[in-house]
Batch of 4 targets.
Target 1
Amino acid sequence: MERLILGSAPRNIYRTSIMLDRVYTIFDKRRRPLRNHVYLAFPEHDIAFARIAEAAFHTLAPVLHHLAGTEFCGTFTDRSAKATEISDRSLFHGNVELLTARELKRRHPDMKIVAWVQDPLHRLAYCYEKIIMNELPLPSYYQESYFDKSMSPEDFVSHVASISDLEADNLFRSQTAALTYKGALTADIILLLEHFEQSLDTFLAAGSLKFRPSPSFTYRALDYVSPGTLRSFEDEGLFHKLRRRYKADYELFYAQAAVLA
């Protein structure tokens, strides 16, 4: 039996390493100016959403549009690149602020922060398909970081494991690092994407929303990653490397669920 991890996040459980406590260099801020802008603040509802798992962000698009006061133009099942681009663009025309943790704490010190986390295996498999298997050229960051379109899943995981969270792109930076500010977790509520229905009920309650989705509004890993890629990432040797790279995520967010499974 699995149990949803809910409630107030333990703010002092995780202490970052010296590397993650360092301030980002001026060069890095210029190269990736929006890297730390992971919080979507919705002032009208006094709630912020931490955008750290892209699958969660896209799945929850109808709810986020509702929070922003904008119209969701897509469908619950349309997850094409064009549909998500239109959705993302229209969302930021609403009452929403894209902020860093520092900006969020300064502008909205009492705002409730909700984070949806995703199993690192599914999250990295999604990154592999989006970056490596995509027909488009590698984004500049991945070119500069020596990724290659010919990489196998094992090569990809090994290379990701060699890159620290300080240097990692948001698609594969650990969720613990993304949610850590001044040595403590920012989120008041942490929800598991894999427990979608229960997590959604908690999210809607936290935002005092009366939003009622259709039955087709749900999450499945296979909606974002092909069966073949998922099987490759579930290989025992590969998963061992992945688990070491994301040890903090598994221990902080998934340890309880694993024990109770």
Target 2
Amino acid sequence: MPFDQFVQTANIIADVRRRAEPLLARLCAKPETVAVGVLGGAALSGRRAFVDGHSDIDLTLLIDVPVPTPVLELPWPKFVDTVQGLLPTWLPGFKFRDPTGDLEINIHQHIWSYESQPHVVWDDRKCEAYAETLDVVYDPQGHLRALVAAKVDSRHGRARRAAVELLTYGRNLLQDGATKCLLRGRTDAAVDIFEHILSDTIDVTFFLVGRWPPHLKWRMVTLEALAECDELCAALLALTSDWRCRRIAIDTARATLLGLLDVIEHRCREVYSTWPDDVYRHAIVHHFVDRQLLLSTHADQQTRTASYAHCLNDETWNAVNWHLGGPESLRNHTEPDRSRELPPPAGTSTIGVRTT
């Protein structure tokens, strides 16, 4: 996508790459070097391919040194302390400037034998940088390409998990948690919840359009670019703009975002063939590790309630759970005090995860 149409500065990528060439050549020539690449906007083949006078340039360096197997199993802080005597002394600092003083350079440094281990997991932002903004400069044995392929292979699973989290815990926070904050007179807390869930919604939307969530510096530019061809991105961009310019109040903003969460869930059903009919019922057992252990409880078997979102208003379901029993527990169940009956959940709200 042509990023220069979304900013007010000129693209000087060719000049920046030319200035980085001597350093890239020196890195490639070192005997310990396995691979070298250019990341971010300076990657000519990347999605962004945009560098201006305010940009830095990110390089990636993969080296290999003989590291004993027991050392490879150490957590990173202990590992990096232990291998100091094994590292080549020519390695530079992470961040420095070129001789002109106006180009900042970042060199992301990795040890192949450590980084290639399966338990070393890259976060979403790092996966985005390597999957979508990498020019491979030197990789004679294909180690860098193989490493990137292995680390970003989890995108589909991560995207699904992020969507499940958003459409259960996030949706509940936005509808029920924010309401409680407003009733307590803490509008600031309700706003904090809304802005947090809006941010998560944007990330999930990037996943659903087949992208990794981008670096924060380029997040809104990327959303604006995608809005030209995706209605959900356009709606999120409009909501974000309306909210940040204070053109809408918190109640309107929340209602709009809740509607967009419904759109996201519909899209999830199209993208994921195994998307559950009731995402909350699925999540409390299979996603969250501290919610519910039984796939089907006595209360579920007694009521056969289709939607978990309505269970709190089912007298039988509540009674069986309260008495911790099967059908026999209902014999001890007395009629509830209807004056304290909970109102039905509004809209598509899911059952509360946190109640205070």
Target 3
Amino acid sequence: MALMIDLGLNKAISPRGKTALGSMAYFRPPDRQSSTERTLEERRAFLGVLYVTSSQEFLSLHYSFLQVFLYEVAVHDTIANTGYGALPMTRLKMLFTCLDVVKQFFENFGAISPAHYFNFTYFTWSLAGHVSVVLSKLCIFSGDSWDPNFARSTIDFPAMVHEMQEKLKQAAALAEQSVRHTPQAQSPYR
């Protein structure tokens, strides 16, 4: 929003007259046909700022998922300890980092208003499902000094699922409420 204000995109369009620098014609924008017309560049800038400020939550959600995708390799049993070379603590560090990032993902997901849930794409829901699977793997993984009880105490999986269910119920209630308050157009074929 600050960027929009700095660019002056929040102000109403006013006809531009001569300024104190009137003799420097090359500083003035080209004349417009109408004083209420915005240029394409102004519209793009306005929509860009609006998009970035409203999608910050979604960007952080996707960023968290990318980190989960990077560190979830440590949960897979198909990689032997010898695959980590001379760094025996690498897998353990990756497991702790993965747990932290999973926690961050669900905190970011919980920060999003349930009113936005119906704007999620299938991809976003599949990300949430995938991170849930990684969390469940972290809660049952045993080996390499990893304590699954620590994972369970860090993120309570059943409580997290219950919280998501409650938010989905809220989203459904909001959707039903908006449908009731939206005037429906009469069909000419009735």
Target 4
Amino acid sequence: MNGKDRGPGMLSRTNGEAGNHEVGKDEARNNEILRSDEILRKDDISNAETLHDSEEAELRRILARYTIEAPTTDDTAQFAAGLLRHWDAAEEPSPAAGIGKPFHMLQMIQAQLKLFQWPFWLASATVLVLGLLVETAAGSEAAVQPFIFTAPLLAALGVCFAFRSYGTPMFRLEMSLPVTPMLLIFGRLTIIVAYNSILGVCLSLFLVGGTGSGIAAYVFSWLVPLGATCLSALIVMLYAGLNAGIFMSVLVWSVQLWLNKHLGMFYIFSSETSGYWMESKVIGVLLILLLTGLLWLRIRWLKLSGRLAVSNGN
């Protein structure tokens, strides 16, 4: 039959056959669903283990097409980033819009305190007290002051402990949350530095025994190396991984310990009895400013990239 012989009746019959085919596919799909429902009703769901092998295999075959893969960490991060983009497009206030306000920053820091359990606080205090006792026994004329070396190393290792999830899917997920990387990283760094600084000042008052220029010089002696060591460990960790951050903190501490006064004005762990004390502290402060700038650039890159790219120690 050619095209001229096809009348309205033939076209109607053809369309009807196509519609019947679609209806047949829908009926087959519905029959499979009803069949799976019959299998489940045949035996109570609480006794599903009593299904026959053939029935269980048939049920698995039918339900396989409705099974989806569990979302990965990357999927979750992309989903969160998409939500934030839509949030900004709608000109709605972001959950982190008030991070510039001190109250909101304190709230975020308080929330991160839950990452640290009481054994961490107790162990940190115990180590600092031991350093104080050793320094009391060693005297103030020694080239290496035990407490000045104890506080910076303890704080640097505390920073590494605070970011122990680095390099894991958990840290990727943290970076995908509405809280900015700047607030997250500086919040944890503030917790470690503030806790060790408060303890250090209290113990310094006990060790020096008074107030004024003496206590100020002593606190400055260990506070500068504490800041430099913590920032060095954190920056190296954000670039090269957690183990590299731990190694850097121990390396800086070891070089200062073994070379001490031979470093001259670069002996930033020096006490006030050192001949280059003032010069070394100025260099230490400049180093802290430089490291802070590098840390800010690194965190800014993390923010612009959308999420932290952590893979095989990168």
